[in-house]
Amino acid sequence: MNSTDPHVSIIILNWNGWEDTLECLESLYAIDYENYNVIVVDNGSQDDSVEKIRDYCSGNLETESPFFRYNPLNKPINLIEFDKDDVDEEEISSKVSAESLNLYLLKNDKNHGFADGNNIGIDFALNNLTTDYLMLLNNDTTVDKDLIGPLLKTTESDPKIGLVGPKIYSYDRPSEIQTVGFSIKWSRGEIVSIGHTELDEGQYDKITNVDCVSGCLMLIKKELILEMGKFLDHEYFLYYEDMDSCVRTRKLGYEIYVVPNSKIWHKTSSTSKKAAQTAGYYTSRNVFIFMKKYSQKNQYRLFLVYFFIYKLWYSIGLNTVYYRDLKAFIPILRGTKEGLAWKK
């Protein structure tokens, strides 16, 4: 690949997760594509993430993975550090190295959530770098060497393809599919993962038009983002923001595809009680926001029946039994209440 190929800006959001981020970076710097840059947005981490990223770039901190062997030969990596509100385009240009790999580290003053954290990275790329595509990539992923080429081949084939995603596998079970896109069941307010937990036996090897792709990795045409404005809706903070972006993409007349020749492996970590309560609150709240924004009236009515007869009680029971805590249902009820009260 060379500079005539489309340029891709890859945005990785880090929040107190430097070990995952370094493994992701090491896999990225081994891909078979040259015309890209990497932007790590640190979302106000309270651990020593920033210092660990510095150590990694200097070559003083190795990272391990079952998917690759650490490469000391591409270190040091030129680290270009900025605070979110102290970005200067001329200063950025002066710090870019033509002799080594570059990593942009954008430091947020607080945790802006998944949506705005990524939006800050997108704005940085659009305002300060020359790029054709934006890629959002979760930090708890490891990527295949042939990551970008198949994605670009699909997007470049049709101007109406606005965004694409890869085949996503489980990190712990590398042959098990995590998702090859999503379909939306509007009458239930459910986002159904295609291929979830299936062993990959070639059953999803065709490039496929889907309702949504996972926010674990989205490759997005710059023109789509410019037309859309903010790509991710900060109203959600966590969960459903990637699905919201996919719905808005389709409403603008663009198509969404999964490209199975592009592959990543995504970690599914054990969930703490506190993290589960946070997820319970945001998922129960945000499904109402999502449905109120996009479903038809009859679909919303059916969703309400399904939610209050089955889904709510299933979620409460699952959290209460799994965590053996009678208070585990409180965040779910609070999210449900706030979701019901939300208005466009």
Task: List its traits.
344 residues, alpha/beta, Spore Coat Polysaccharide Biosynthesis Protein SpsA, Chain A, 2 domains, eleven-stranded mixed sheet, two-stranded antiparallel ribbon, 10 helices
Polypeptide structure, described:
With 344 residues, this protein is an alpha/beta fold. It folds into 2 domains: 8-266, Spore Coat Polysaccharide Biosynthesis Protein SpsA, Chain A, CATH 3.90.550; 273-341, no CATH class. Helix content is 38%, strand content 22%. The chain has 10 helices and 13 strands. It has helices at 18-28, 49-58, 89-95, 113-128, 148-155, 222-228, 241-251, 273-294, 297-323, 330-341, and strands spanning 8-14, 36-42, 78-83, 102-107, 133-138, 141-143, 161-170, 177-179, 182-185, 190-193, 208-209, 217-221, 255-266. Strands 1, 2, 3, 4, 5, 6, 7, 8, 11, 12 and 13 form an 11-stranded mixed sheet that branches. A hairpin with a 6-residue loop joins strand 7 (161-170) and strand 8. Helix 1 (18-28) runs parallel beside helix 2 (49-58), helix 8 packs antiparallel against helix 9 and helix 8 (273-294) packs parallel to helix 10. It is globular.
